[in-house]
Design goal:
277 residues; 12 helices; single chain; 8-stranded mixed sheet; 43% helix; alpha/beta; Rossmann fold
């Protein structure tokens, strides 16, 4: 059942799935989606894992059903704090965190700033090695027409074309998917000023020195057909993450939760079984 929790001006929408098997102390997995997506993208993973573990999915503001407040902060660090805050409110001391794309960068930050709260990391095509552009951020934030231009750009591109660009197999795109992915952009125009704020608040990704300090066990999945973030970035991450491994997926694009959920779910179950969490 969908629930909400306030956090520094945001109202964050989330769901909890309790295991169907008898388990007095179930392990927890927190799932963080990517840019322009929502917790909906994890539905296949949830179906594969919900019998064995407690799953928490949330709509990272301003996406999905979370509020769209243009007065709020949208930095990666701020969102990472909101994830830990949610865990605290749910009495989850420690969790396995899974993050896709933008959510992957947020997951890395959760482990960097709060290592005591993270059992393991599973990151799917995580945003990596992107620097902050002060000039771009300032120009966007000062342009009163920026929300209009972003809306026009997304409308011209279209949800179907964005999904096609993000996935290797077009046949996996259904009408249901299209409805869910376009819902936040059709029914609430306030998301567009928030997207401007995301661009304005954008932080550079964790740098090489910061990554080297991140000792949490981490598995990186990357689609070999990813047109958004090339899989070679995965090899770069391996150079700096001291406790990581990389799994490349054939015939898979950027939207790994949609295209390869069985492989990711199997991996998570193995990791959790070994950790004894």
């Amino acid at each position: 059942m969908q629930k909400t929790i306030p956090f520094k001006g945001h109202t964050i929408c989330y769901e909890i799935y309790s295991p169907t098997t008898q388990n007095n102390n179930p392990f927890s997995i927190v799932m963080l989606h990517g840019f322009l997506a929502s917790r909906y993208c994890f539905r296949h993973l949830i179906h594969l894992l919900k019998e064995e573990c407690q799953i928490v999915t949330l709509d990272i503001p301003p996406f999905g059903d979370s509020t769209k407040n243009k007065q709020c902060t949208y930095t990666f660090d701020h969102i990472a704090k909101s994830v830990i805050f949610l865990m605290e409110q749910l009495n989850i001391d420690k969790a396995h965190i899974l993050g896709h794309s933008m959510g992957g960068q947020i997951a890395l930050r959760c482990a960097y700033y709060y290592p005591e709260r993270v059992h393991s990391l599973t990151v799917l095509s995580p945003c990596s090695f992107m620097n902050q552009s002060q000039i771009f951020a300032k120009s966007v934030s000062l342009n009163p027409f920026a929300p209009f231009f972003i809306r026009k750009l997304l409308k011209r591109k279209g949800v179907y074309e964005m999904l096609r660009h993000s996935m290797y197999d077009d046949d996996l795109i259904t009408e249901e998917m299209l409805e869910h992915y376009k819902k936040p952009f059709v029914h609430n125009k306030m998301i567009y000023p928030c997207l401007v704020n995301i661009l304005k608040d954008h932080q550079k990704d964790l740098d090489e020195d910061e990554l080297q300090k991140l000792t949490t066990s981490c598995t990186i999945f990357w689609g070999k057909e990813d047109l958004i973030l090339p899989y070679l970035l995965g090899y770069e991450l391996l150079k700096f993450l001291p406790n990581a491994n990389l799994i490349l997926l054939n015939q898979t694009g950027h939207l790994i939760p949609e295209e390869s959920p069985k492989l990711v779910a199997s991996h998570l179950l193995r990791v959790i079984s070994k950790s004894g969490a």
